[in-house]
Amino acid sequence: MLQKIKNTLIYLALRSLLLAVNLLPYSLVAGAGEFLGGRFYAWVPKERERALRNLAQAYPEVPEATRTQWAARVFVSFGRSALELLKMFTWPARRITALVEAMEGMEHMRAARELGRGVLCLTAHLGNWEIIPLCTLQQGWPTGAVAQTLYDPRLDMLINRFREQRGLVMIKRQQMTRDIIRALRANLLLGILNDQDTGVDSRWAPFFGRPAKTPVGVFRLARKLGTPVVPVFIARQPNKKYRIYIEPALRLPRTADEEQDLREGARLANVVIEKYVRRFPDQWVWFHQRWKSPPPEEKEKFTAETQRTQREAPKN
Question: Do 211 and 205 contact (CB within 8 A), yes or no?
Answer without folding.
Answer: yes
